[in-house]
Amino acid sequence: MAHLTPDLRRTWLFGPGADSDAHDAMLHSGADVLILDLEDFTPPTRRDEARRGLAGVVRRWQDGCRIAAVRINALEGEGPIDLAAAMHARPDIVAYPMASTVAQMQALHALLTHWESVLGMPPGATEILPVCETALGVVDVRRPAPEVVFQRTDLHVGDYLVNDEGLWVLVYEQKRLWHSEQEAGATVYRGGRLYLLDTLFQERSSVRLPGEVSALHADHALRPVVEGRTMGWYAQQQGDGLALQPVELATLRKAVLPWTDSIHDLLLGNNLNAEYPAFDHIAYDPKRDSALLVCSVVDEFLLELFRSQYKYMSGRDKVIASDIALRTGLEREVVAGFMTGFSHDLYYRVPYAPLFVVHDTLRVFDHYRERIRPFTASLEPLADVPLTHHNERHWKQRLLHDVHDDRIYALFAQGVRCWLREVDVRTGALGPVRMLTHASPEEVQVHAGHAYYVYRVSGSLQTRTLYREALR
Fold first, then answer.
1. Of 48, 88, 144, 445, which residue is the least packed, with the fewest Cβ within 10 Å?
2. Across 80-84, average pLDDT
3. How far apart are CA 434 and CA 441, in angstroms?
4. What does the pLDDT look like over 366-394, one tens digit per residue?
């Protein structure tokens, strides 16, 4: 049949999914669009029955010159099962309940595209109807969709880095998780390749990575460094291609990665040990081969618990701890904390107090003092600024630095929803919420006023894809 354009579809009639008498009545009602509702109009106990009868109902409605639609349940629930049954019936429209975010529409679009390909249907043959039941939904589903930055049908995005040269993307064919005691949970990428994209996200050059790799890092000057299982490599453009400069893994971990930023002639880093609740921020002067203390960060509460482990040790272990303390110069209580493995305790948290250079000022976000601690380029302390973001319930204990715009963002998440709020480094106040479109984004970064992240539509054949969307 020749479909009415959306503006001319005056009457939309919802009906139950498992009631044949209602289906006949709907066909003769004169409504322009008939919607078989698998959500509110169909009890959960009858949804399987409704799915089995979908094809016959949709065909009968279409033969009767009506536009046939199916309203599925949310994709977080029974939606994927509903959609599989609906697409085999080939409805004209798929309706989505309680539509409130553009991410839901993007996820539905991806799944529809998948099913249209599987069933040999033309791309875009199935329309989407967002059923917006809140004012927020009406506004949000119309937001611009996130931009696809890098996507391949045969490769997944594992990691990426944005710097002045462009966008570096580490991709892989498959990954595996290590489950040995020493490497439990570590991700290793096989068939890795490094791409360099220009500012328009067009491929400039690429290089295959030797062996298995685990991460793409940035050194203190934002140069890309690839970490492998047995070796590391600096990557740089050379002619029309990319060249890899080997670096020993021990050198990478001890002499490169600890230095996260720089100011004037100083390298900035820290001596963080993930098993100890305190560390120092350090400035290193390569010309003088000297290190200077910027400040110390201490989680006083956890440090007290860490040290208190000595009291609960056996007499024999106390003797051992005291002996180690004499030989190393450490306090016996500190030795005891390491000996008892307190860092594996349920209450332990790795200390988080990053240092960023913002407007030529060093700023330490000390969440244990609840202050932003600024320092001049000569390491002179300035007036502290109170923090507020760490008291927000859904803060994910992560701050992001937009080096291009010199802005700091706090990352928040609740369930599958994720959002950013700018932190004013002068006052500590939080800016407006910038909700990210897709659910459960991974590897979130910020550059030049845009949020970048990796996302894959759950339940689809889509590979891990790199997206970006504007924050302002």
1. 144
2. 95
3. 14
4. 999 999 999 999 999 999 999 999 999 99
Confidence of residue 174 (pLDDT cuts 50, 70, 90): confident
Nearest alpha-carbon partner for 299 in 245, 353, 346: 353
Q: Where are the beta strands (DSSP E) in 154-301?
A: 156-163, 166-172, 174-177, 187-190, 193-197, 203-208, 213-218, 224-228, 231-238, 241-248, 259-263, 266-270, 278-285, 290-298
Contact 282, 270 (CB under 8 A): yes
Give CA–CA dist 422/399, Å, rounded: 9
Q: Are 261 and 357 in contact (CB under 8 A)?
A: yes
Angle at 432 between CA 426 and CA 434, to 5 degrees: 120
Q: Are 238 and 194 in contact (CB under 8 A)?
A: no
What is the C-alpha radius of gyration for the chain, rounded to an integer number of angstroms? 28
Residue 183 is predicted with a pLDDT of 53
Place of tokens 């919420």: 433
Q: Could you give the CA distance from residue 352 to residue 250 in angstroms, rounded to a whole number?
A: 24
Per the CB < 8 A criterion, the answer to whether 141 and 101 are in contact is: yes
Distances (CA, A) of 270 to 61, 266, 274, 329: 68, 13, 12, 21
pLDDT at residue 110, rounded to an integer: 85
Structural domains of the chain in order of their starting residue, each with its CATH number? 6-145 (3.20.20.60), 149-255 (no CATH), 388-472 (no CATH)
SS3 225: strand
Host H or E run for residue 89: helix 79-89
Q: What angle do CA 341, 344, 347 make, to 5 degrees?
A: 120
Judge contact between 290 and 270, C-beta under 8 A. no
CA nearest to 132, candidates 103, 85, 107, 96? 96
Tell me the DSSP string of 410-445. EEEEETTEEEEEEE-TTT--B---EE-SSSS-EEEE
Angle at CA of residue 190, ends 187 and 196, nearest 5°: 95
Q: In this structure, is the dihedral angle defined by the CA atoms of residues 405, 406, 410 and 416, taken in order, positive or negative?
A: positive
- Number of other residues whose CB lies within 10 A of the CB of residue 220: 18
CA angle 250, 251, 252 (to 5 degrees): 90
Closest CA to 71 of 33, 45, 103: 33
Whole-angstrom distance, CA of residue 35 vs CA of residue 68: 6
- 433-470, pLDDT tens digit by residue? 999 988 899 999 999 999 999 998 777 778 899 999 99
